[in-house]
TrEMBL record:
<protein>
    <submittedName>
        <fullName>DUF4142 domain-containing protein</fullName>
    </submittedName>
</protein>
<dbReference type="Pfam" id="PF13628">
    <property type="entry name" value="DUF4142"/>
</dbReference>
<feature type="signal peptide">
    <location>
        <begin position="1"/>
        <end position="20"/>
    </location>
</feature>
<dbReference type="InterPro" id="IPR012347">
    <property type="entry name" value="Ferritin-like"/>
</dbReference>
<feature type="domain" description="DUF4142">
    <location>
        <begin position="45"/>
        <end position="175"/>
    </location>
</feature>
<dbReference type="InterPro" id="IPR025419">
    <property type="entry name" value="DUF4142"/>
</dbReference>
<keyword id="KW-0732">Signal</keyword>
Length: 180
């Protein structure tokens, strides 16, 4: 009887170990596939910051189209809306690919920034140009740092976007100078 119990116990132990081995393989397989789709903390912060910055610039430019009469300012706002909507689409692709949740609304701070801009009718164009210079300086720095990301899709997007952001910054500075 004792031999029978030992045999049953031994078989149960072998079955348990075998099942654990299968579970470990499944866990390892899932772990590897998930690690290819997730982003590190720095890349996550970059994507979220870039989305927020683009949303802010788009909203400020839409407000500008409703408030400004200056053709140079309106042309700049059109360029920002077009280019940053395209950038936002690319950022959303990275978010989808890397399983990062979307931010559909701007932060309260950014909403207040756009609202404050629209409440400056007398110096609106100058305030908008100043905001665009500041936002693009931040964006150039953000994207330049992200161009060194370990996540290839993030570094590729950042690297390809930096020249356009620098061109936007130069245009914003030229616009600002023309409004003085």
């Amino acid at each position: 009887m004792s031999r029978f119990i030992c045999s049953v116990f031994g078989l149960l132990l072998i079955a348990f170990v075998a099942l654990q081995g299968c579970e470990q393989k499944r866990r390892a397989k899932n772990f590897n596939s998930n690690s290819q789709t997730q982003v590190d903390d720095d890349s996550y912060r970059f994507v979220q910051s870039a989305v927020l910055g683009s949303q802010t610039e788009i909203e400020a430019s839409i407000a500008t189209k409703n408030s400004s009469k200056n053709p140079k300012v309106l042309a700049f706002a059109d360029m920002i809306i077009k280019d940053h909507k395209a950038l936002l689409d690319k950022l959303r692709e990275v978010q989808d690919d890397k399983m990062v949740s979307h931010m559909d609304t701007m932060s309260t701070e950014r909403q207040q920034q756009v609202l404050a801009l629209s409440k400056q009718p007398a110096g609106f164009d100058k305030a908008y140009a100043q905001m665009m210079v500041e936002e693009h300086e931040k964006a150039v720095q953000l994207f330049s740092e992200a161009s060194h990301s370990r996540i290839k899709s993030v570094s590729d997007l950042a690297e390809k976007t930096v020249p356009k952001l620098k061109a936007h910054l130069d245009s914003a500075k030229a616009l600002q100078a023309s409004l003085k």
